[in-house]
Design a protein that fits this description.
The complex is a heterodimer of chains A (about 280) and B (about 120).
Chain A: H1 2-28, E1 59-69, E2 84-94, E3 97-104, E4 109-119, E5 129-139, E6 156-169, E7 172-183, E8 185-186, E9 194-205, E10 210-219, E11 232-240, E12 243-250, H2 257-262, E13 274-282
Antiparallel strand pairs in A: 1-2, 1-13, 2-3, 3-4, 4-5, 5-6, 6-7, 7-9, 9-10, 10-11, 11-12, 12-13
Chain B: H1 2-16, E1 21-22, H2 23-26, H3 38-49, H4 69-78, H5 81-86, H6 102-113
The chains are: A mainly beta (about 280), B mainly alpha (about 120).
Chain lengths: ~280, ~120
């Protein structure tokens, strides 16, 4: 049963790609465009991918940090000592198709990703922007010394995600992100490897340069007694020329989709949260 | 172009396939004949996981070395070694995670409870 389900999701993502080509052909002849612009200014809402893409032939470097838990106070300088880092390059093959590679020091994860726009929101037209996001992750931190039966395939994880956003008005945007993700190896024995989640995100402009962003990941099949929690993040975006600087608090330390959805350990109720920021720079 | 690279990614994904493993599936039962000792049971765990940073001299900001028996005993007694490897938040050791398999953490705890025997 579970294999069929996975296969079905593969097929869906393949058929979605086929649609992408068709829609693109239509778009090339479209002169009068009244697309809603910039529902989100950053490539991420906070943890979740946003519906923004990198422009054609542009290369963006994103450096993201998540500190350790702030609850240990000065002992770890509010998490500075336990910080993890992500370095991510995203390149725009076209305005509607991006590829990216990243490496995170959270469990030494390498990632390759593809992000592609399927439909764009238009004034007095289609009401949503829909973007697909797929990625493959390799966890290079698993040790054969600790896990004697480890094979290469156990290091792999996959994400299949649809990002659906709507710019409600010039100040306010919303996003919903149905997500399927699969970890070939899970740390918690009772957790099923194939997991489902719905991401919810929003952005509200505060001034010309500032906005407040929130996102939440609602995990739909987390195991009972799992030590992992749903990720909630609240942050501020600051736009400065070629940079977007995102500062936030979150209860997930991992920055890859499977990480923050499947392995968030912090708890807002206990003050066990992490400070983090994403910094992106266009080349 | 776009479909090619996407198809490539999907091929890689399909080729590697999905598997359904968790910690239980990849670890073996640790059989202890007598008592847990540093030389037989603990040193291999430390060497596999800690020495990368807790070397002598320590690197990557690690505050102390864990290369000898007395180093490790000192860390258990004064530096909350058990607490750090059992932590479930970002302060867990090894830094950046993942946490050690529970079977190995339990082994270290057993070693401490049995009185930190060297060999």
């Amino acid at each position: 049963m579970k294999h069929y389900l996975t296969l079905l999701l593969f097929l869906i993502s393949i058929s979605v790609i086929a649609q992408d080509d068709l829609l693109d052909e239509i778009d090339t002849n479209d002169l009068g465009n009244n697309y809603a612009t910039a529902a989100f200014k950053g490539l991420k809402v906070v943890n979740f991918e946003s519906t923004k893409l990198v422009a054609k032939k542009e290369l963006i470097l994103i450096i993201a940090h998540r500190f350790g838990s702030i609850e240990n106070g000065f002992d770890s300088f509010f998490g500075l000592d336990d910080a993890v880092t992500l370095i991510n390059f995203v390149y725009g093959i076209s305005d509607s198709f991006n590829v990216g590679v990243s490496r995170s020091s959270f469990q030494k994860i390498y990632e390759a990703s593809a992000k592609y726009r399927l439909v764009r929101q238009k004034e007095s037209g289609f009401p949503f922007t829909i973007v697909g996001y797929n990625s493959v992750m390799i966890n290079s931190s698993l040790e054969e010394g600790n896990l004697p039966k480890l094979e290469f395939s156990d290091r792999l994880s996959y994400t299949f995600q649809l990002l659906i956003s709507r710019k409600v008005n010039s100040n306010f945007s919303l996003e919903i992100a149905p997500t399927f993700f699969h970890d070939n190896f899970v740390f918690f024995d009772n957790q099923h490897n194939s997991q489902y989640a719905i991401g919810l995100g929003g952005r509200h402009k505060l001034s010309k340069r500032w906005s407040i962003n929130v996102d939440y990941g609602w995990h739909l099949n987390r195991a009972d007694n799992s030590p992992f929690k749903n990720p909630l993040s609240i942050g501020f975006d600051l736009e400065t020329g070629g940079h977007v600087f995102q500062m936030h608090f979150t209860n997930a330390q991992a920055m890859n989709t499977n990480g923050f959805l499947g392995q968030a350990t912090g708890d807002w109720g206990d003050g066990d949260i992490y400070f983090g920021f994403n910094l992106s720079r266009v080349f | 172009m776009r479909s090619k690279s996407l198809i490539l990614i999907l091929i890689i994904a399909l080729f590697s396939g999905c598997s359904y493993n968790s910690e239980d599936d990849l670890t073996e039962q640790v059989i202890i004949d007598n008592f847990v000792t540093y030389e037989t049971n603990i040193k291999p765990i430390i060497d596999n996981n800690c020495i990368v940073c807790h070397n002598n001299p320590p690197v990557n900001g690690a505050p102390m070395s864990l290369t000898t028996f007395s180093n490790v005993v000192e860390a258990v007694e004064n530096r909350n070694l058990i607490g750090r490897i059992s932590a479930t938040d970002g302060s867990v050791m090894p830094a950046g995670g993942p946490r050690l398999p529970q079977s190995l953490i339990d082994l270290v705890i057993q070693w401490v409870e049995e009185g930190l025997m060297e060999n």
